[in-house]
Design the sequence.
């Protein structure tokens, strides 16, 4: 856990250094996203404790702390989410993460990663390394996102995306409610993809921080 958390902290520290070295470490520790990430790493750590009865008090502490973090920061990272080191959450509010992800995942505000609604999916999204997800974007259902993918703001992704692609836009479809049972909506609302080189994590962090 500590090594993973150290790599998470390095990303926040690099962003804090862009505004000057003075108190950079303290400012990095007080970032909303880093606080939520710390709690998530702690929660995942409690699941590794054996025997199970030994983990109960630690899990209770996690459950108690999770409530104010969700209410005050608006960041909900599922305990089932398996996210690699270097997780960077910029800004706060409306963020829900339930996914499997590789290293250096970057997300901003109002991002949702999780199951498709109405019982239409049986698994959460799977993301590769160095994925960036812009404000308001949604990645829904049993989909795979390749390494180095950049998902633009307000984009809804419901299909697999190959590595090193840029995904932007959000098409919509209007249909009567009674048609929902007969219509497969999995192909709608998915942005078009076009090849693009992925930004490095450091460049992504600086861009996110500048926009914030």
Sequence:
């Amino acid at each position: 856990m500590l090594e993973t958390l150290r790599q998470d902290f390095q990303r926040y520290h690099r962003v804090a250094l862009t505004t000057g070295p003075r108190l950079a470490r303290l400012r990095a520790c007080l970032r909303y996203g880093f606080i939520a990430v710390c709690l998530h790493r702690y929660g995942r750590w409690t699941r590794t404790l054996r025997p199970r009865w030994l983990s109960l008090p630690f899990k209770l502490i996690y459950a108690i702390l999770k409530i104010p973090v969700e209410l005050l920061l608006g960041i909900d990272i599922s305990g089932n989410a398996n996210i690699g080191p270097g997780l960077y959450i910029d800004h706060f509010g409306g963020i829900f993460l339930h996914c499997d992800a590789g290293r250096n995942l970057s997300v901003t505000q109002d991002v949702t990663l999780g199951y498709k609604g109405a019982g239409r999916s049986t698994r959460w999204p799977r993301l590769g390394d160095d994925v960036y997800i812009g404000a308001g974007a949604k990645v829904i259902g049993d989909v795979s996102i390749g390494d180095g993918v950049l998902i633009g703001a307000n984009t809804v992704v419901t299909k697999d995306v190959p590595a090193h692609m840029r995904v932007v836009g959000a098409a919509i479809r209007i249909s009567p409610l009674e048609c929902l049972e007969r219509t497969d909506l999995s192909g709608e609302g998915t942005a078009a993809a076009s090849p693009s080189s992925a930004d490095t994590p450091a460049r992504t962090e600086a861009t996110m921080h500048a926009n914030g």
User: Anything to note?
Assistant: The longest helix spans residues 52-73. Confidence is low (pLDDT under 50) at residues 187-200.
